[in-house]
From TrEMBL:
PANTHER family membership: ARYLSULFATASE (PTHR10342), RE14504P (PTHR10342:SF273)
Source organism of this protein record: Spodoptera frugiperda (Fall armyworm)
Keyword Glycoprotein: yes
Cofactor(s) in the UniProt record: Ca(2+)
Highest taxon above the source species: Eukaryota
Keyword Nuclease tagged: no
Protein name: SFRICE_020501
Length: 402
C-alpha cells in the first residue's frame, strides 16, 4: 500500500493463514504477548486461538492505517469475510461455538456454511443487511461498485444496489454443496433448505453450551474495540467516533440475536439426521437453528428441491480422495504456503465411476417427476397449437385478401 501509485486503481486480497483450523489442545504457536492480552479467557486452548485472532485484528488495523497514510481510505471499499463456521469438534478443533446455529465446520449445517461479513466505505450508512449472499457474488458486486462491467455467464450475482439501497437480495437460491466424497448434498431455495445423504451425527449437534460455564464475567470487549488501530484512524482521519450504544442497538436487530439469547433452551434431543432414505427440510426464516424438520409436512417442497439437486448432482465431476504431497511442505518454501507444482506438470488420475445420488428414489418423487413432465408437455403443446393457429389465420387472411 505504501509503495502503490494512488493514481492507479488498487485491488488487495489478504488471506490470513492464522488462525485457520484450531490446534486442539497444544498445537497453536501463539506469541506470548497475544496470549497475555487474552488472559480473561478461562479456557486455555481457546485463549491460544484468541491470541491469533488478536494478531489478525491488529493486521487489519495496520492495513487501515496504511490506507489512511496514503489518503486512500476515503476512496476504498473494505470487505472482511469468513470462509466457514468454527471447528467445534475433532483433533484440530478450535473450541469455537456456532450457537445458536447447528453443526461444525465441514458439514452442510448452518453453523458451518452461514458466516458473518462486513463491508465498509466512508459513504455507506451503518446497518445490518439480512439478504442472501453467496461468496461468488463478491466479484460482480465489487466490479459494479468500481464502475466496471463483466461479460459472460458466471455463478455470482451483482448485489451492489441491494447492499447500498437496502433492497431485497436478487439471489433466490444457493447450491450449498454436492459432496460426492462424504455422500451428502444441500440446497437452499428462498427460505427453505434441504439436506440429504449421510451426515455424521457426531458433527450435527449444537456445540458450545458447556463452554459458557467457564466464561469469566466482567470483561468489556468495548475497550478493545475503542483502543484498536482502526478506531484510532476513524477518529483522527475520518472524524468518526464509534457509537457503542448504537452498535448494541443494531445488534438487537440481528435475525439471530433473539436465538442467541435462547441457547439455554437448545437441546440435541430429537434432531433430524439425514440418511440415504430421508433428508431434512427447514424454513430458515423462522428456524435458523435447524431444529424443526418439515420433510413430512411439506412433501411438494421436498420433491421440487430434490429434483433440482438431482440436476446439480448430474453435473459434478467425481473427485478423488486427496492424498498428501511431500513437495507441498512449507518447510521447503521458506515456511510459506505456495503452489508447489509446475504449471506444465501433467498430473493424471484415473476416471472414477459416477457416484450415486445420496437419496433413494421415493414413490412421491417419481409421481412429482411424472406430473412435472406432463405439465411441461402440456404447456409446450398449448404454445405450439397457439402458434400454429396464429400462423394458419395469417395465411388464410393473406389467401383471401384483395
Amino acid at each position: 500500500i505504501r509503495s502503490h501509485d494512488p493514481s492507479v486503481p488498487l485491488y488487495l486480497h489478504i488471506s490470513h493463514a492464522a488462525p485457520h483450523i484450531g490446534g486442539g489442545f497444544v498445537n497453536l504457536q501463539t506469541p506470548e504477548d497475544l496470549i497475555a492480552v487474552n488472559d480473561h479467557i478461562a479456557h486455555s486452548p481457546r485463549r491460544l486461538y484468541a491470541g491469533l485472532v488478536t494478531g489478525l485484528d491488529r493486521s487489519v488495523g495496520h492495513v487501515i492505517s496504511a490506507l489512511a497514510e496514503r489518503e486512500l481510505l476515503n476512496n476504498t471499499i473494505v470487505v472482511l469475510i469468513s470462509d466457514n463456521g468454527a471447528a467445534s469438534t475433532g483433533l484440530n478443533r478450535n473450541f469455537g461455538s456456532n450457537l445458536p446455529l447447528r453443526g461444525t465446520k465441514g458439514t452442510p449445517w448452518e453453523g458451518a456454511v452461514r458466516t458473518t461479513a462486513v463491508i465498509w466505505h466512508a459513504a455507506l450508512a451503518s446497518k445490518i443487511w439480512p439478504g442472501l449472499f453467496h461468496v461468488t457474488d463478491w466479484m460482480p458486486t465489487l466490479i459494479a461498485a468500481a464502475g466496471g462491467e463483466y461479460n459472460g455467464t458466471i455463478d455470482g450475482i451483482n448485489q451492489w444496489n441491494a447492499l447500498t439501497k437496502n433492497d431485497t437480495s436478487p439471489r433466490q437460491d444457493v447450491l450449498i454443496t454436492t459432496d460426492d466424497l462424504n455422500e451428502y448434498a444441500a440446497f437452499r431455495e428462498g427460505n427453505y433448505k434441504l439436506i440429504i445423504g449421510k451426515v455424521e451425527p457426531q458433527q450435527s449437534d449444537y456445540y458450545g453450551m458447556e463452554l459458557k460455564k467457564s466464561r469469566l464475567p466482567g470483561f468489556l470487549y468495548e475497550n478493545v474495540l475503542l483502543s484498536s488501530d482502526t478506531a484510532r484512524v476513524f477518529r483522527e482521519t475520518l472524524f468518526i467516533n464509534i457509537d457503542l450504544e448504537m452498535a448494541a442497538t443494531k445488534r438487537n436487530y440481528s435475525d439471530l440475536y433473539r436465538h442467541i439469547n435462547n441457547t439455554d433452551a437448545v437441546t440435541n434431543e430429537g434432531l433430524c439426521i439425514p440418511t440415504n432414505a430421508k433428508g431434512c427440510l427447514y424454513d430458515l426464516s423462522v428456524d435458523p437453528a435447524e431444529s424443526k424438520d418439515l420433510w413430512h409436512t411439506h412433501p411438494q417442497f421436498v420433491q421440487h428441491m430434490v429434483l433440482r439437486l438431482r440436476a446439480y448432482w448430474a453435473a459434478i465431476n467425481p473427485r478423488h480422495e486427496p492424498t498428501p504431497d511431500p513437495r507441498a511442505n512449507p518447510a521447503l518454501h521458506d515456511f510459506i504456503w505456495l503452489p508447489w507444482l509446475d504449471n506444465l506438470e501433467n498430473v493424471t488420475k484415473p476416471l472414477l465411476a459416477f457416484p450415486n445420488f445420496p437419496l433413494q428414489v421415493s414413490v412421491g418423487e417419481l409421481q412429482y417427476l411424472v406430473d412435472f413432465n406432463l405439465n411441461a408437455f402440456k404447456e409446450s403443446l398449448t404454445s405450439y397449437v397457439k402458434t400454429s393457429a396464429d400462423a394458419f389465420i395469417q395465411n388464410i387472411a393473406k389467401l383471401f385478401s384483395f
